[in-house]
Specification:
By secondary structure, this protein is an alpha/beta fold. 32% of the residues lie in helices and 25% in strands. The strands form eight sheets. It has a seven-stranded mixed beta sheet with strand order 15-17-18-13-12-19-20, with helices on both faces. A five-stranded parallel beta sheet has the order 9-8-7-10-11, with helices on both faces.
Length: 681
């Protein structure tokens, strides 16, 4: 390295930190222009990094259950939150304000917390995910099928964009880790110094199994040459780069799962009802200016096309001008600054080039593409750019094809729902869109019209405004991606993002084998009815298939009448013989469904204190055959699934309940959920 040069960013691969060969390319502070670091991945063995992830990281992750991985995500999120000031300090060098940094850093930490919570609530404490119900394949029930999902045996290669150096890696890492697949992160060079610090904090925490997270600082080199059919590639960036990567020979040859989240010309639509003075009008203008200025407009979800009713165009333009005039641009450290710099001088030049094309189809109503007044900074050394709002012609191609990836948006008029739906679709696929209107019928028509071109749609009105997360905020529980130009992929989306990293397999077998494979009792598999009542068994003693058969219990006219009077449920089918006889489904008085469930509970319960701590719910309840006075009820309760809870002295047990009559017909089927102590006290 040349004397006095900045440090070369490190990569973390094959179990250790490594520095690329040579002096590296310089990276600059977006605010001052000063050199922050250099970057090089020359000499890093990409094939070895992938092999390390597959050979070391993958097996270690697959030994953990979903709940154990979820607990690690929570611990990691807490660790990063405690050390985020180190990330904030570097984030300022990317041109980000404090608010921008929170959007990026706190947003990424929030994804970890969210996936931790979803993993514990929606996934089993197991290593196998059961996808859907059992599919019967034979008349006698001895041949059935079940879809399962298991982790892919490769590495999730994650290529991220420059605009979110913390959130970008974390939102890809969280679902991959929860699925049991190791990640290899390759950040964009401009802001990779923040990602390097993020990975350093993660590695130094000692929380994660070795090999579950690796980092490439610099060019990807020949990385993609070594991917296999068990690996995944996720990319965030330009549509043109996504096309090149998607066509990489190894990706095509090995049918590698490829997910792209690309740039898109997102739109926001103002409803005709939202005239000046209405809450929705103000919300629209505020949202537009926010999306133009947060992260200096460098968000893949930012509003690029703002459609408004033709007769409101001038009103919106004037209101937006007034708001934009109050935005102070400059050094993010200055307390009055509300918009920082673009990520680099190169990015500023790219925005200026795009603006030249947009000006051919419209006129500027606010801002100057070439100059900007800044606070506490040098306007030329820093990558500063004025917010620019244009009025454009929606019938020209440029507003629907050219994206200035910065603080730029174009106002355009429309005259009907059909027209604005057509204009929105001309973007050829977007990550996010919004409709701002107090007219629910208008909102419905627009949403259904534009949905095929969008991954996410926000409808903003006076009712949800206070709690809305905004147009440009991807949420962990919601899909982030979009069709067409937006890349055609999906990230996050709750458990959908986890399943993207797993292989769905249809297993055809006997009920007994399916129970063994899935860890869940399947109807037709053996039951164990002898010995100790299953409610007397702790979690440590209980086994899948443990069962109790209880009954019969006769149902009388007096039972039905008493239940009706006691509960107040005097529906005619339970109380009026003549009317009930006319009902084509019943042909006479029938017992209440919940009377049947209550009788079943009375049959299978073990009343003395024991390991069963609580009954906390019923699921999938179906009443299948009417129960009439004179029928005899028998219940079969079978241990279906056992889910120990991490860091607790109890777990959840799911029981299959099947209530039958004297003819062995099922009258009710449902799942009973109980909390059971891990050990007898």
């Amino acid at each position: 390295m040349a004397q006095g040069a900045s440090k070369v960013l490190r990569s973390y691969t094959s179990g250790g930190w490594q520095v690329g060969e040579g002096d590296g390319a310089p990276l600059h502070d977006a605010v001052t222009g000063a050199e922050v670091a250099r970057i090089s991945s020359a000499g890093i063995d990409m094939a070895a990094a992938l092999d390390h992830g597959r050979r070391v990281g993958g097996p270690a992750l697959r030994e953990l259950t979903f709940h154990q991985r979820a607990a690690l995500l929570k611990a990691l999120a807490s660790h990063l939150r405690e050390n985020r000031d180190e990330l904030y300090a570097l984030s300022a060098k990317t041109g980000a304000t404090r608010g921008d940094s929170q959007f990026d850093i706190d947003g990424g930490i929030g994804v970890l917390f969210s996936y931790s919570s979803k993993g514990r609530r929606e996934l089993p404490n197991d290593t196998v995910y059961v996808d859907g119900g059992v599919e019967p394949l034979s008349k006698g029930g001895t041949f059935q099928a079940q879809h399962i999902a298991t982790p892919l045996r490769g590495v999730a290669v994650q290529i991220n964009a420059f605009n979110f150096p913390a959130w970008g890696p974390l939102e890809k890492f969280a679902p991959a880790f929860l699925a049991g697949v190791p990640s290899l992160v390759k950040p964009a060079s401009q802001t990779a110094y923040l990602t390097e610090k993020l990975v350093e904090l993660i590695v130094n925490s000692g929380l994660l199994p070795e090999g579950s997270l690796q980092l490439i600082s610099g060019s990807a080199g020949d990385l993609l040459d070594h991917v296999t059919g068990q690996d995944l590639v996720s990319f965030t960036g330009s549509a043109s780069t996504a096309q090149k990567l998607r066509a990489h020979p190894a990706i095509v040859r090995n049918s590698v799962r490829f997910n792209a989240e690309a740039d898109s010309l997102n739109c926001s639509i103002l409803g005709p009802d939202a005239t000046p003075g209405t809450t929705e009008f103000d919300l629209y203008v505020k949202q537009l200016v926010t999306e133009m200025t947060v992260k200096a407009g460098q968000k893949c979800t930012a509003i690029r096309r703002a459609f408004v009713p033709a007769d409101l165009l001038d009103d919106v333009a004037e209101a937006a001008r007034e708001r934009l005039a109050k935005i102070k641009v400059g050094n993010p450290a200055h307390p009055d600054v509300r918009m920082g710099a673009l990520a680099s001088l190169e990015q500023r030049e790219e925005v200026r080039r795009s603006l030249k094309a947009l000006r051919g189809a419209g006129t500027i109503v606010f801002g100057d593409p070439e100059t900007v007044e800044v606070l506490d900074a040098d306007a030329e050394k820093g990558a500063f750019h004025s917010p620019v709002l244009l009025k454009g012609d929606p019938d020209r191609a440029e507003p629907h094809e050219v994206e200035a990836f910065g603080p730029v948006s174009t106002l355009m008029p429309y005259t009907s729902v059909e027209q604005v739906v057509d204009y929105a679709a001309r973007g050829q696929g977007s990550l996010a869109g919004s409709v701002v209107s107090g007219d629910a019928a208008f909102a419905r028509e627009v949403v259904l019209g534009v949905a095929p071109w969008h991954g996410r749609l926000l409808v903003l009105d006076a009712d949800d405004a206070k709690e809305s997360t905004g147009h440009g905020s991807p949420m962990p529980a919601l899909v982030h991606g979009g069709p067409g130009r937006a890349g055609g992929g999906e990230e996050m989306g709750g458990i959908r993002g986890v399943l993207h990293h797993m292989q769905r397999t249809a297993v055809q077998a006997s009920p007994n084998v399916l129970s063994q494979v899935t860890g869940q009792w399947v109807e037709g598999a053996p039951r164990r009815e002898e010995g100790t009542h299953p409610f007397r068994k702790s979690l440590a003693e209980l086994k899948i298939g443990d069962a109790v058969v209880a009954g019969p219990r006769p149902v009388t006219d007096e039972d039905v009448a008493h239940f009706a009077e006691f509960t107040g449920d005097t529906f005619y089918a339970h109380t009026d013989e003549a009317a009930a006889r006319e009902n084509p489904l019943f042909g006479g008085i029938v017992a209440h469904g919940y009377l049947v469930v209550s009788f079943a509970a009375g049959l299978f319960v073990s009343p003395e204190p024991g390991p069963v701590l609580a009954n906390y719910g019923l699921e999938n309840l179906r009443f299948l055959t009417p129960v009439k006075p004179g029928d005899d009820l028998t219940v079969t309760l079978t241990c279906k699934q056992i889910t120990p809870r991490e860091n607790a002295d109890y777990g959840e047990v799911r029981w299959d309940a099947d209530v039958t009559n004297q003819n062995q017909e099922s009258v009710a089927k449902y799942d009973v959920l109980t909390l059971v102590a891990k050990e007898n006290r």
